[in-house]
Structure formats: structure tokens, C-alpha cells
Write a structure and sequence with these properties.
3 helices; Cytochrome Bc1 Complex, Chain D, domain 2; two-stranded antiparallel ribbon; 2 strands; mainly alpha
Length: 114
């Protein structure tokens, strides 16, 4: 993460406060590497997050109310972390291709029956 990136401060805070449970490559964290542990949070390389969702998770201890501490960061620090996570989360997500679209023409003659 280059120091001139506007979300650099958020990356540093994320690495300090969130790295024990979450993987996010731009922050250099691998907290969710041991998926056999219940305390591991989601791998944020593999899921997109919006700024609003990150703020919600920070304030409420995640989405399932499981293990993440509420308000692990607050105020400006929470905003910085949310900006960083929402910018970089989901970079390893591969979007499934959309189904092929087929078009039918109403003017086409029906196929003959053999």
C-alpha cells in the first residue's frame, strides 16, 4: 500500500486492529488463513464490502453478532478503515459470467415438423 494512497491511514489501522481475524492483501493481513478457528473473520479479499456495510459491521460487531467486538475502531478511525476496506475488499472475487442471452424474433417462421 503506497503511503500516498488516500486510504493508507485506514490500511494501517486495519493492520493494527483487524489483522488477527481478517485477511485483506492490500493491508498485508492473513487473519482468516486458519479457517478451522471459529474466531476468524471473513476473508475480505473474497467479498465486496460497501462503506455503509463496513461501518455497520464495526459498530455492531459484524453482521451475525458472533465474535467481532463492537466499535473496534471509532470516529475518524472507523471512517478511515471503512474507506480502505470498501475500496480494496473483494479483489479476489471472480464474477460468474452472465448467462448467454438469446433473442428470438417473433417474425421468424416456425421450424417445419419432419
Amino acid at each position: 500500500m503506497p503511503s500516498d494512497d488516500p486510504t493508507h491511514a485506514g490500511a494501517e489501522i486495519f493492520a493494527q486492529r483487524c489483522s488477527g481475524c481478517h485477511t485483506l492483501t492490500p493491508a498485508g493481513t492473513e487473519g482468516s488463513a486458519n479457517r478451522s478457528e471459529r474466531v476468524q473473520g471473513p476473508n475480505l479479499d473474497q467479498r465486496h464490502e460497501t462503506m455503509a456495510d463496513v461501518i455497520y459491521a464495526i459498530r455492531n460487531g459484524g453482521f451475525s453478532g458472533a465474535i467481532m467486538p463492537q466499535n473496534i475502531v471509532v470516529g475518524d478511525d472507523a471512517q478511515k478503515v471503512a474507506a480502505f476496506v470498501s475500496k480494496y475488499a473483494g479483489q479476489d472475487v471472480t464474477e460468474a459470467p452472465a448467462p448467454a442471452q438469446t433473442t428470438t424474433s417473433s417474425s421468424a417462421a416456425p421450424a417445419p415438423n419432419p
